[in-house]
Amino acid sequence: MRSNTSNTRFALDTAPLRGQMLAGSMPHLHVVVRGRVQGVGFRYFVLKRARALSLTGHVRNRPDGTVEAEAEGPRSALEAWLEQLREGPAGARVDGVDERWGDEGSGFERFEIVGS
Question: I need a labelling partner for 110 at 20 to 30 A (CA). Which of 1, 10, 16, 71 fits?
Answer without folding.
Answer: 10
